[in-house]
Write a structure and sequence with these properties.
Blueprint (H helix, E strand, L loop, with lengths): L1 H7 L2 H9 L3 H11 L1 H37 L4 H34 L1 H18 L1 H17 L12 H14 L4 H13 L4 H4 L1 E2 L6 E2 L4 H10 L4 E6 L1 E10 H8 L16 E4 L4 H11 L3 E5 L5 E6 H9 L12 E3 L5 E4 L4 H8 L14 H9 L8 E4 L2 E9 L2 E9 L7
Parallel strand pairs: 2-3, 5-6
Antiparallel strand pairs: 1-7, 3-4, 6-7, 8-9, 9-12, 10-11, 11-12
């Protein structure tokens, strides 16, 4: 019982109790820290109980059973053998039930509690039998050395193990569902990079310093973005970035200049491969919540904001007035999807998480379809994947704009 309780107890829970002043929890941690000594102590206890049970059974119970059998007319020799078999079977039954199964199942119901209860007696036994325990420990270590078996230290928790713990916490009620999803979102964000979060170049709304000032203001009014790159003719010549909040505050003052250059600030550049958590730290340190994403050749590939990073954690957060949903479920059960829908969001919407490869060279639904077709598809062409038929329904020049995902009929089982 002590062995199962100590081994099954959670170190994190015991450490929390020990930090709160629980001496018994500290004792259990001491046992877990010295598994050789602890296991030797357990084995000494089990051996002593077995010896006592065997000696008592042979000397007392077996003799009594033999006498009863003789009185019933069984021969002395046969009575001795039968009594021996009966006593061994009875003691084995009691040992398995009362000495193994019931105590271990009891220990598993609340391992931390039972480990704390039994830690004291185990330490007393270890002290009383210290010479024997020392000899057993040295002997077992010697055998491991002869067999060339190296002791492996306790490994750190893997990401998958942490996810299992989170799932168990959510199922038990220790974590609220939204807390579980938030922590999982942070863990998932650690695996993402800037190019999987950014708004692609083809969708960036920008302001041209060569255009009339009022025309640029109209662009800021007609969209829901909070920041706009200011360019000289094209997106290949970005001069800076304008914050809409700052722009309209300053325009409300008398004598505000009619030149976008007066309102822009320098913009940061980040590589496509920058990890999302490093990007978040960059926003935190700089105080600026927007950056331009460049590819390995220095060309502009997109724009990423703090809002994009937060969406990577908690999911889609539509801006006020943003009515352009990227995934719309239709009455017939099909989905009308934006080609720029991220492949991760697609997996969430269509429950295809197990189908998306971890190593891939695309980040959007359009990129996925291009990788499947191996070329620019035509309107009406389709591929089947994950139980859906993905049909290209609209193209914007060379870009896949709209896709229809139609559930495939279930395959009849033979």
């Amino acid at each position: 019982m002590a062995e199962i309780a100590v081994v099954s107890s959670r170190k994190s829970r015991l450490q929390s109790l020990a930090d709160d002043g629980d001496r018994r929890a500290r004792a259990v941690l001491g046992l877990k820290a010295s598994p050789d000594r602890f296991l030797s102590t357990v084995q000494v206890g089990i051996t002593l109980i077995g010896i006592i049970a065997g000696a008592y059974g042979g000397a007392k119970i077996a003799g009594g059973v033999k006498d009863v059998l003789i009185r019933t007319g069984v021969g002395a020799e046969a009575a001795g053998e039968v009594s021996f078999i009966l006593v061994v079977a009875f003691i084995t039954f009691l040992s398995v039930i009362l000495g193994e199964l019931v105590p271990k199942q009891l220990a598993l119901t609340d391992p931390e509690r039972w480990a704390r209860i039994l830690a004291g007696p185990m330490r007393l036994l270890a002290t009383a039998a210290s010479p024997v325990i020392w000899m057993l420990t040295r002997s077992s270590n010697l055998m491991l050395a002869i067999l060339r078996i190296k002791r492996v230290s306790e490994s750190a928790l893997s990401e998958d193990e942490i996810k299992v713990i989170l799932e168990e916490g959510a199922q038990s009620g220790a974590l609220q569902q939204h807390e579980h999803e938030l922590v999982e979102g942070v863990m998932y964000l650690a695996d993402r990079r800037a190019n999987s979060l950014m708004t692609p170049r083809t969708r960036i709304a920008w302001l041209d310093v060569n255009a009339p000032f009022d025309e640029n203001l109209a662009i800021t009014r007609d969209t829901v973005y909070g920041h706009f790159p200011v360019c000289d003719g094209t997106l290949d010549h970005v001069l800076g970035v304008v914050s809409i909040k700052d722009l309209w505050v300053r325009l409300s003052r008398p004598g505000a200049p009619k030149d976008m250059r007066a309102y822009m600030v320098n913009v940061a550049y980040v590589p496509e491969t920058m990890p999302a958590l490093k990007l978040l730290e960059s926003f935190k340190q700089s105080g600026r919540h927007i950056a331009l994403v460049v590819d390995e050749y220095g060309g502009l590939s997109g724009l990423v904001t703090l809002h994009d990073v937060m969406e990577g954690i908690v999911g889609d957060m539509p801006a006020a007035g943003d009515a352009d949903a990227q995934a719309v479920r239709r009455d017939d059960g099909s989905w009308l999807l934006d080609g720029m829908l991220s492949i991760d969001d697609l997996a969430d919407v269509l429950s295809l998480s197990g189908e998306v490869p971890e190593e891939r060279d695309y980040n959007t639904l359009a990129g996925f379809l291009l990788s499947r077709f191996g070329r620019i598809p035509r309107r009406g062409e389709h591929v089947e994947w994950g139980g859906y038929r993905f049909e290209v329904v609209d193209l914007d020049a060379m870009r896949i704009d709209q896709v229809l995902a139609i559930p495939l009929p279930a395959t009849p089982q033979e």
